[in-house]
Structure prediction request, 625 residues.
Amino acid sequence: MTNLWSHKGAEGMGYAQPAPLLHEDDLPLASGLLRSSLPRWPRLSEPEMVRHYTGLSRKNFGIDTGFYPLGSCTMKHNPRVNEVIAQMPGICDVHPHQPEHHLQGLLSIFHEMQHMLSVCAGMDEVTLQPVAGAQGEFTAVRCIQEYFRHRGEAQRTRIVVPDSAHGTNPASAAMAGFEIVEVPSTTDGRIDLDALEAVLDDTIAAMMITNPNTLGLFETDIAAAAELVHGVGGQMYYDGANFNAIIGRTSPGLMGFDAVHYNLHKTFSQPHGGGGPGSGPIGVKSHLAPFLPGPVVDVRAPRDGEKAVDDGRWYVWREPEHSIGKVQQWHGNAGAVVRCWAFYRRYGRELRTMTEHAVLNANYLRHAIHREAKEAGVDHLFVDGAVTDVAKHEFTLSMLPAKEATGVTAMDIAKGLLDRGYMAPTVYFPLVVPECLMIEPTETEAKSTLDAFAKDFVAVVGADADTLHAAPITTPVRRVDEVYAARNLCVRVPDEEL
Amino acid sequence: MSEIPADLRYTPEHEWLRVEGDLVTIGITDHAQDALTDIVYIELPGEGDTVGDMGEFAVVESVKSASPIFAPLAGEIVDVNTALEDAPELMNTDPYGDGWIVRMRLEDMSALDGLMDAAAYAAMLGE
Prediction:
């Protein structure tokens, strides 16, 4: 394939620098800020450009090319009807600075999403502004921080996280200036209430936790944990990464949480394999609502001269009273919100069935893998990451027995799966499981896909160590040297290569 | 089966301590470096820093994870192995030698008695 950056092309081909609109002497810029030479952008004809990007797409692997059981990331199919709706002119050709009467359709979608997300999570108010789960976490802990400052409880400077937490939880809390208190899990992988109680006092601002947790286990003591944290005046924060396991069955509000973020790109749908664009709204109970970032969308009856759309209501932007300020412009990633709204509208109350199928698929696949492994005589090479009868929407396997027996690591198994045409599961997370593989099939995969994966997974586990150490051999890029990459960080193309 | 030298003290967090006169050298064990896999970066403390009992004094990053290193006992850091900045892999290749991390002057040398010896550490690892 053409190396785009090294392709100089011929004069008059492809991109050409337009003539400046103003003479250099007339520019309202200090002379030191002017370029001394033109940017060295590649010159390519249209067919060369098309081949470049088509070539890249053929090297890529996505949910559209194969099974993608990447635990914690909820890589489900993205219905194409979402794209049709997101590209309607009334949705994609408007700007938030237009007058509200131009935006009524889009604002009604935002308002409905705020309301639907509030109901699903048992919260009172929602902002759609954060554009990723971690940004939602940061936004929520900032709201909690402001809430305590307003109450004269600024001494609450610590946040509790379990040792199985998503790494973003302590990172978001630290970014907001909190000190992190890590509590160990019990040997069965759940909250240790005694360990939790031991760290609680009036310096605790909140506990951050996901349920089901990162081992795919439902935290059966969650209500007791919430009671303990509330007992010392702290807030409960729900990491919504695993919302696909509970939606319609229970809610963070019922469990006693005060704030939650949603990963719309996971639980609903939005292509997010390349790191975005995501959408990480947060929902809060009413006592935290005045601190949300603004604007949020509100609704009222139309006034004189306001011509409402179909539902007879009028939608307006509103700034929360004690807002922490913006974390993004306006409503965040509008396109992602609209796609997720379209997805939710197709399901309606059947979101509950979606969750049930996600949990069923995970448990089916877990049992299928164990059954196939037993038949093939390789069941001694891995164990469940957590001992349980029923997992939720994802499960973990520890390849520690394989590593001890033959030297084959979780990473080797992951690479071996690439050669069979699958995306690898999440590896080495959660950290509490040695040699961990974390598998999440989602509800959008057919039984035949799960059956085939179980057989292929077991075939990979049973392959000889040398083959696995050398894998992958069929992918456009073979085994990446992660050590070299980490020790020799290169984040821009050197000038001499342009 | 990892290497566990008989003349060192050990912590449950997989650090080793070597007593040399009134100073104590600290590093991570062979078991720890094996579990971390290839170490690519270490954030080191400064000489003269004081750390409390179980205070975090360094962060080790491997291709798998980032792990804090805790001071098993309170004291002052008197020497730092700055060679690790350019060659963090020394902790993988020679964890008990060139891969040492810091030397400390402990507040209370008798606190060493509370740490594990090689046999107890081996028992903890199940080896």
